[in-house]
Every structure is written in structure tokens, then in C-alpha cells.
Amino acid sequence: MTIIYILLAVLIFGVLVIVHEAGHFAAAKACGVRVEEFSVGMGPLIFKKQRGETQYSLRCIPFGGFCAMTGENEASDDPRAFVNQKVWKKLLILVAGSFMNFVLGLLIIGILYSNAEAFYSTRIDSFAENCPYEGETAFMVGDEVWSIDGQRLYQFADFSEFLDNEDGIYDIVIKRDGRKIKLEDFELVPVEYTDEGRTRLGLNFGYDMGTLGNKLKHTWNTSMEFARLVWMGLGDLFKGNATVNDMAGPVGIVSMMAEEGEAAETTGDALYTIFNFGAFLAINLAVMNMLPIPALDGGRVFLTLVSLIIEAITRRKLDTKYEAYINGAGMILLLALMAYIMFHDIIRIITT
């Protein structure tokens, strides 16, 4: 089954790229920008078909794709060139790819949750007998734990995830009767319950039934959780808690998805895990592509806005070649990083 899971992972990864580039393509067409080529895959050409002004291509490397627009990286006299469009059109085209990835992530999660009968909730339904945290100045039945130390609880698992202070002191926000109440410097540590023979907080959480409204709510909350995981990973990278060697590229991601599928007890569980991973990747791509880094969509958005500000101050239109130089240098560095990560992915696969 491993080869099937690998092929499925490659297919999902390819779909994520196609959807991203299709977002750029659809936005460009809607804005009247001339699209010269829409390619699925990178590298040598396998197949091409010309329809109107656009060439539709299939290339041999499945991890990638592009939507090539006239005047995307250079000056052009064509009024339909990307470079000659109004700023709002440029921004719309640039963010469309990430937007479509995010929508795809939402759609996958929604499909995975479509048959859910109930969801774990952060709403307190009852307390253990003699629980010290029950009361008007603490928790009450019906309270929803909203955040811990500023971190919003999107899922039930977040409750234990953010209870990691050694001293057990937290700033907790709860929602009670539609109002948010803050419990500042609140001590929350496990208590021993001899009748149960275990140590725990004594808070019993309930369920949200699988109604359409709750499915939509938990679909959105899960997408927000995935986006936060991306930001937390970036934070660990900048803080030095993680290194580039901890990152994974397309090869490593496909390998991880296949391993998760192989480790599942049933085929159904494997498919659920792989597609859940795919939803995380879709939202990951949406977030990462909007970072203000040259060559990424977010970097191009940033440079477009900076150019707009400079032109407004100087009353002179900037030469597009400077933006092209910056994006070109960024692309070279990005490709070098991807090659480095791919090399480590291959080494990890070979040595494990």
C-alpha cells in the first residue's frame, strides 16, 4: 500500500500547486491581463496545447507550476501586461493563489467533517466532586474556555496544549452568557481525586453535536488552528528552537504523508489522515506564500505597495527592472534553499 499512499500524496501536492496557479490564472483573466502560459509541473515540456493567446502545458516535474503573464517581470508596451495594470488589479492577482489554497483547505476539512456526529468542545459541562475550580470567580457549568495566555482555543486539544507553564499560573479568558471574563494570574494545576485513583484538573468538557452550524464552525476553527501552527513553526525557526534541517520540502512531505497513511490501522483512517495533512498543507501554502519575502507572492505584494508609496512621494514611476532584480535574487535564494532541503529530505529517507 505504501506506493499507493506515495502516489496519492504526490497527487494531492500537485493539486495544491494547480489550485494555487489557477487562482492567479482566473484573477488575471478576470482583470484582462494577457496570460502567455499556464503550466502544470516544472522542467522539460511533456505536452502543450494552444488555446487563444494562452499555452496550456504539462511538464515533467510534478512539484510546481506557473502562470506566466505578459509584463510580469519586465516593462512592456502591451496595455494588457501585468506591469501596466492598476495597483488593485495587481494585488488581486497576487493574492488569488493563496486565497484559493486557503479555500481548498477549508473545503477538504469540511468534507472530512461532513459525517461527524459530534465534536469535542471547550465548553465545561460538569465538574469532578469537590473540584476547587468551580465557582463564580473561577469556572461554572456552561463556560467556554476562550483563550489561555492570549492563545485562542480553536480546538479541544488546545486546552492541554497551552497549559504548559511550570508554575501553573495563567491568564484565562472564558465566555459566560455571551460575555468574556478574564481570570488573571489564575492557578490551574491538577488535583488528586482518590475516588478516581488519578490526578486531573476536574473539569469535564462537553460536545458540540454535528449540526451544520457546528460543522462549519469547527471547519473554520481547524483552518485557523492550522494557520497558527504555521506561524508557531516560523516563530520557532526565528527563535532558534528549530533549524532549516527541521524543515521539509516536497520530497519530505510526500514521504511523511505516505508514512502516516501506512501507520494507520485501516484504509479509511489512512485516507482521512492523508487528506487532513493535505488540508494543512493547503493552508500552510496560503500562509507561507504571503510572507513578505522576494519571489513569493507576499514579497511581490510588499514591493508593489512600497513602489506605490515611493511613487506617491517622488511623483515618479519606478523602473520595473529594480523589482525584477529583487525578485530574481529572491528566486535564486529560494531555489537554493529548496535544493538544500530536498537534499536533506533524501538523506533522511535513505538513512531511516
Describe it for me?
The protein is α+β, with helices and mostly antiparallel strands. Helix content is 49%, strand content 23%. The strands form 4 sheets. It has a 4-stranded antiparallel sheet with strand order 5-4-6-7, with no helix packed on it.
Brief summary of the model shown:
This protein has 352 residues and is of the alpha+beta class. The chain is built from 8 helices and 10 strands.
Summarize the amount of helix as a percent range. 40-55%
What number is the mean pLDDT? 84
Broad structural category: alpha+beta
* Shape, per Cα inertia axes: globular
Give the radius of gyration.
25 Å
The helix/strand order is: HEEHEEEHEEEEEHHHHH
Largest sheet: 4 strands, antiparallel
Q: Low-confidence runs (pLDDT<50, min 5 residues)?
A: none
* Number of helical elements: 8
Topology, number of strands: 10
Strand order of the largest sheet: 5-4-6-7
- The N- and C-terminal alpha carbons lie at a distance of 19 Å
Task: Tell me what portion of residues adopts beta-strand conformation.
Answer: 15-25%
Topology:
Layout: H1 2-30, E1 35-51, E2 54-69, H2 87-112, E3 118-127, E4 144-148, E5 151-152, H3 157-161, E6 169-176, E7 179-187, E8 191-193, E9 198-200, E10 203-209, H4 212-239, H5 250-263, H6 267-288, H7 297-314, H8 320-351
Antiparallel strand pairs: 1-2, 3-10, 4-5, 4-6, 6-7, 8-9
Helix pairs in contact: 1-2, 1-5, 1-6, 2-4, 2-6, 2-7, 4-6, 5-6, 5-8
